[in-house]
Design goal:
Length: 359
């Protein structure tokens, strides 16, 4: 296991004595304590650290947390951390920039309740957020930030009332982004077929599987050592020692088993939403991320759960067919999410702000 104190001091270029000013290392915490620390209520000070902490609670692909924050004066910038990209599942960094948009939305919402109006602009690969003093706002979406999670489990099959659907649809509103909200069983079945076809293609791709397995964290100790990745407990799976879990993967992580799971999860969902931008470039992917994050937060605020089923947009050969089935024409479908009423699972970890803030 990586020593957490050594990991943080090395990552920040600090001596051991300098460590005393940082948060308690995760190696001295339980998993639940680490989760509670990262998801503690938002504080007014230190402002930049707190805003970054809430930004990092955003949805992101494989929980790689592919972001670097820089704070100067009343400006916070979010840049991609390409060392954390996933070239197999995300060869053009689409998901990476969607993740940055998710983080930006969290930061903007958190700033509003601390009395700061946020003005985001795109500067190349960066999102630059200028903060201007304003009256503190009340925001149900901001309150949902530390609670939100992607719930990789079957839901209970209950339908969602029309007024709730309207609120979910409104949450997705973003310039140049289209949201397609589906609750009809035939429409969900169509999406399911594409999810299963995409899942089969990915599971037969050895490069994809190697990358996926590299981000799996099989137990709390492994998750605490890196504070990132896909913790098995957060997916409702049992935790095992890595030496035992890895050899067992070929027996439990199978194409047929995963397809059965995804079919059950989609069959149990109240609906599916697909987000698609008008153009396919980094600024529009960031916009998709903002809409995606608001959807997740609105669902959470309404007592719903949601999860990503992005296989149809991740498999390049399948994506145009999926777009055609949705009536998107030449536009690229960016994100697919299912939603409904479901269980609460253990939440994933996040690296502390000191590890994602550039000085």
């Amino acid at each position: 296991m990586v020593d957490r104190r050594q990991f943080i001091t090395s990552a920040l270029g600090l001596s051991a004595t300098a460590f005393s000013g940082l948060p308690a290392p995760a190696a001295t915490m339980t998993y639940d304590e680490a989760v509670n620390t990262s998801r503690a209520p938002l504080q007014a000070a230190p402002r930049d650290r707190e805003l970054v902490r809430f930004a990092t609670l955003a949805a992101n692909s494989h929980n790689t947390q592919p972001w670097i924050f820089t704070a100067r004066g009343n400006e916070i910038a979010i840049a991609p951390d390409f060392a954390r990209r996933c070239p197999a599942v995300d060869p053009d960094d689409h998901h990476l920039f969607v993740s940055l948009g998710c983080a930006a939305e969290n930061l903007i919402l958190a700033a509003s309740i601390l009395g700061w109006r946020a003005h985001p602009t795109i500067d190349g690969d960066r999102i630059v957020i200028a903060l201007e003093g304003a009256p503190p706002a009340i925001s149900a979406l901001a309150d949902a930030i530390p609670i939100r999670q992607s719930t990789r489990a079957a839901f209970d099959g209950r339908t969602v009332a029309p007024d709730i659907l309207r609120q979910l649809d409104n949450a997705c509103r973003e310039p140049d982004v289209t949201a397609i909200l589906m609750t009809e069983r035939s429409a969900i079945a169509n999406v399911t077929n594409y999810v299963l076809e995409g899942n089969s293609a990915q599971m037969r791709d050895k490069t994809f599987m190697r990358e996926l397995v590299s981000w799996l964290r099989f137990n709390e100790t492994d998750a605490l050592a890196t504070m990132d990745g896909l913790f098995s407990g957060a997916s409702g799976n049992p935790t095992l020692p890595a030496w035992l879990a890895r050899p067992l993967l070929k027996f439990v992580l199978t194409e047929s088993g995963e397809n059965k799971k995804y079919r059950e999860e989609l069959d149990s969902s109240a609906g599916v939403v697909v987000l698609a931008a008008d153009r396919s470039d980094t600024s529009h992917w960031i916009s998709v991320g903002r809409a995606c994050q608001r959807f997740g937060l609105q669902a959470t605020a309404l007592g719903l759960k949601y999860a990503f089923v992005n296989q149809p947009v991740e498999v390049a050969a399948l994506r145009p067919q999926f777009a055609t089935s949705l009536g998107l024409g030449d536009r690229r479908p960016d994100i697919v999410m299912r939603f409904g009423t479901g269980p609460t699972l253990p939440k994933s970890l996040r690296r502390p702000p000191e590890l994602v803030m550039k000085r």
